[in-house]
Amino acid sequence: MAIKAMGRRMQQPAAVSEDSWIEVVGLDKRYQPRRSAPTQALRDINLTVRRGEFVSVVGPSGCGKTTLLKILAGLSPKTDGAVRIAGREVSKPLPEVGMVFQAPTLLPWRTIFDNIMVPAEIQKLDRDKHRERAQQLLELVGLTGFERKYPHELSGGMQQRAGICRALVHDPAVLLMDEPFGALDAMTREYMNVELLRIWRESGQTVVLVTHSIPEAVFLSDRVVVLSPRPGRIAEIVPIELDRPRELSVMSSDRAGVYVDRIRNHFNAAGVID
Amino acid sequence: MPTTEVADQTPHTRAPAPQQPTRRRFDLRERPQLWLVPAVFVVVVLAWEYGTQLLAVDEYVLPRPSQIVEALQRQLTDEQFWGHLWVTTQEALLGFVIGVGAAVLLGTFISQIKVVEATLMPYIVAFQTVPKVALAPLFVLWFGFGLTSKVVMAAVISFFPMLVNVIEGLRAADADRIQMLTVFGASKTQIFRMVRLPSALPFIFAGLDIGIVFAILGAVVGEFIGAKEGLGYLLLQTNYNFDIAGMFAVLVVLSVMGLLAHFVIRLLQRRLAFWAEDTKVIGA
Ligand SMILES: Nc1ncnc2c1ncn2[C@@H]1O[C@H](COP(=O)(O)OP(=O)(O)OP(=O)(O)O)[C@@H](O)[C@H]1O
Ligand SMILES: [Mg+2]
Description:
The structure holds two protein chains of two kinds.
Chain A: E1 22-31, E2 39-49, E3 54-58, H1 65-72, E4 80-85, E5 88-89, E6 97-100, H2 112-116, H3 118-122, H4 127-140, H5 156-168, E7 174-178, H6 186-203, E8 206-210, H7 214-220, E9 223-227, E10 234-239, H8 254-269
Parallel strand pairs in A: 3-8, 3-9, 6-7, 7-8
Antiparallel strand pairs in A: 1-2, 1-4, 4-5, 9-10
Helix pairs in contact in A: 7-8
Chain B: H1 33-54, H2 65-76, H3 79-112, H4 114-129, H5 136-143, H6 147-171, H7 175-183, H8 188-225, H9 231-240, H10 244-272
Helix pairs in contact in B: 2-10, 3-6, 3-8, 3-9, 5-6, 5-8, 6-8, 7-8, 8-9, 8-10, 9-10
Residues 31, 33, 39, 41, 59, 61-67, 102, 230 of chain A line the site of adenosine-5'-triphosphate.
Family (chain B): Belongs to the binding-protein-dependent transport system permease family.
Keywords (chain B): Cell membrane, Membrane, Transmembrane, Transmembrane helix, Transport
Main location (chain B): membrane
């Protein structure tokens, strides 16, 4: 079942290069809670993402991965530096960006189907067209038959999959994903990985995905950004030169193993075992 | 990710079709309260009936249940009684609708603007501590012996718990949910409609639940102060006439009114705020 792109692409300001579709320059983030010491979450992050590229971010817990995504999503103010998507300074959420949250964050008073339609509803997009797409997405993630259920009637993993459908329903040009598969069992996770790559290939989305799983990052990505422990700094950006389209079997290849080891070494060096 | 060869496999994600939970609503072993609740009632009534006889309690102090039932039968066949009941029902319902309606409007308005909320909150808290019942004589003085003074009393007394619940409810919206809507570009109005209002619903129902009981209380208290009809008036009349069993009968009727209203609101709550079974109730 192919999920077609819906032809609603980001308008591109004339001067934006496809090579720096997402541009992060000298980004600093310091949390300043009212009654405690400040936390330096991110320091001097420099990253450019090509249009249509798939980039993963890995790093130990608390190193600022979620923080980075929230800044890209326009949800969290930055302390210093510049963040641009398609040439536009990100200071508030852009409608062309979809996000999958670390927790599913479904609305308990809406059915699964109505939850998935939230972005389309907010942006007042064509209802029938998006209902059809929502139905396709539900089928893709194996939630057919649960449309009329409420979130509390679903398992954590099923809720997370519904959250993924919601992020995709308006066919966003940029997709931000914060550990979208964390709550899934290994088998479902692999299946979702393969499906995500297919959606990505067909839609030409630019994806930034945060994950705890190094093999997952290697399997999915064009490049893997390795963050150091807090304050998060870029330790290395690893280009993954495995042929596309990829199948899961690629992960048993030596080349994939080399990438995984190379990234894992960063964690071991930092005394953090993933 | 284990590296077994399962490329593009059949989806493991197909869960079995959702099943209807088998609900045994009337299983007495699962829910012993189904017989315990009536059992307690029977025991208490019997103890009351025969205990008062045994201890020779004067029926002007505490009438026996059988006498109360008798008095109740007498009242229920009396046309005047129904008139009193209708008056009090009207007063309570009108006051309730006006009180909670005003509370919802004002509460919504207040919580839209932070400065307004911060400015008015101390006054609301201060007013909340005023024993509203003590205002009844004033209302009778201002609005007379008729319906109006009781409606005002019922409205005022049901207003405050509702107001506090509305404000608290609109504040209770989960920050992550608001953030989720924000990412997808929701406006303030959309966030209000899609998250804040539904989040407030359980609180609003808690306010309605207290509010309706308070409204009945307000109407009766108003009638105590000065009225020519209504159940509060009837309560005083039976008292003057030493018809203590009759007085208890009126109390029974008032309790049933409150219970009925409570059940109607709970029913609506189960329908409209089904996702939240029990939310903490903010009393007044
Ligand atoms: N709202 C906040 N206020 C203050 N500090 C925060 C806030 N959010 C995050 N932090 C801090 O910033 C740091 C980075 O947090 P972040 O959530 O980005 O980590 P993460 O890499 O996503 O971790 P995990 O892998 O566990 O999800 C942490 O030390 C955290 O304590
Ligand atoms: Mg995180």
